[in-house]
Amino acid sequence: MKLISTFIFIVLASTCNTPIEKKAVQKEITPIEVSSQDGFERAYFASGCFWCVEEIYESVEGVEEAISGYSGGNTDNPTYRNHADHAEANEIIYDPNVVSFKTLVDVYFASQNIEQINGQGPDIGKSYRSIIFYQNDKQKKIIEEKINSLTNQGLKVAAEVKSFQKFWIAEDYHQDYAKLHPNQGYIQGVSIPRWRKFASKMPDVIKSSINH
After folding, report:
1. Which of 55, 70, 83, 95 has the fewest CB within 10 Å, making it most exposed?
2. Mean pLDDT score, 116-124
3. Helix H or strand E encompassing 44
4. Long-range interactions of 203-206: CB distance < 8 A, separation 24+
5. What is the pLDDT of residues 140-173, one digit of tens each?
6. Does pTM top 0.90 for this prediction?
7. If residue 159 lies in a helix (H) or strand (E), which one and from where to where?
8. What is the distance between the alpha carbons of residues 71 and 91, in angstroms, rounded to a whole number?
9. What is the largest CA-CA distance in the chain?
10. What CA–CA distance (Å, rounded) separates 143 from 148?
11. How far is residue 186's CA from residue 30's CA, in Å, rounded to a whole number?
12. Contact assessment for residue 55 and residue 191, using Cβ atoms and an 8 Å cutoff
C-alpha cells in the first residue's frame, strides 16, 4: 500500500506542476474592402509621421490624393491629442490603371527605415509604428511576397501586416501640411529629406511636376 500511495502522490505532483499548454488560436479578422469610386481605389499605410507619408504618396504618378488620419486601433473617433491605440496613417486614393497596389507597396518600403520598430526617424512611439493594411487576399499576397523578398535580403521588417478595418480622417490642419507649410522646421528638416531619399530610389514613379 505504501508503494502504491507513493506512486499516486508522484503522479499527482507531476500533473499539478506540469500545466497543459493551450495554444492560443488567433482568429483572423476579415478585412473590409473599400469599393472603387469614379475609377479610383484606396489603399492604407502607416509609416511614421503622416505629413511625411502624405507628401511622398502625392508625388507618385497615378495617386490622386493622400489623406492623413488614424488607423490600426480599436478606439472610436480618435483625435491628434488622443488617438489611443491607433497609428498615424494615410489613405491613398489612386488610379489602378496608372499605378498598381504592388507599386504602392514598393513605395511604402522605399520611403522608410524598414527595420525601425515603433517609429520612423525622430518620431518615436506606437503612434508612429509601421502598419501595412490589406483589404483582400490578393493584396495580402503582394505584401507577403514583398516582405519575403526583403527578408531574403537580410532585412528585419518591422511593419505589421493587418487587415483593414476603418480609417479615421485627421483634423483639417493636418491635410496637405507639407504643401501648405514648406518652410516649417519639421518639413525642412525631416519631411523633405525623407522624400528626397525616396525619390532617389524610385525616380521613375515621380510626377514630372514635382520638384523639391
Report:
1. 95
2. 97
3. strand 41-47
4. 205/60, 205/61, 205/99, 205/103, 205/107, 206/59, 206/60, 206/61
5. 999 999 999 999 999 999 999 999 999 999 999 9
6. no
7. none
8. 10
9. 92
10. 9
11. 37
12. yes
Residue 16 among the catalytic residues: no
Which of 49, 60, 87, 205 is the catalytic position?
A: 49
Helical H segments across the chain, by residue range: 2-17, 50-58, 101-110, 137-152, 177-180, 185-186, 192-201
Task: Return the amino acid letter for 174.
Answer: H
Q: Under a CB-based contact definition with an 8 Å cutoff, are residues 55 and 179 in contact?
A: yes
Q: Which three cell numbers stand for residue 136?
A: 483582400
Instruction: Using DSSP, state whether 166 is helix, strand or coil.
Output: coil
- Positive or negative, the CA dihedral 88, 93, 98, 101 is positive
For 174-201, the pLDDT digits (tens) are: 999 999 999 999 999 999 999 999 999 9
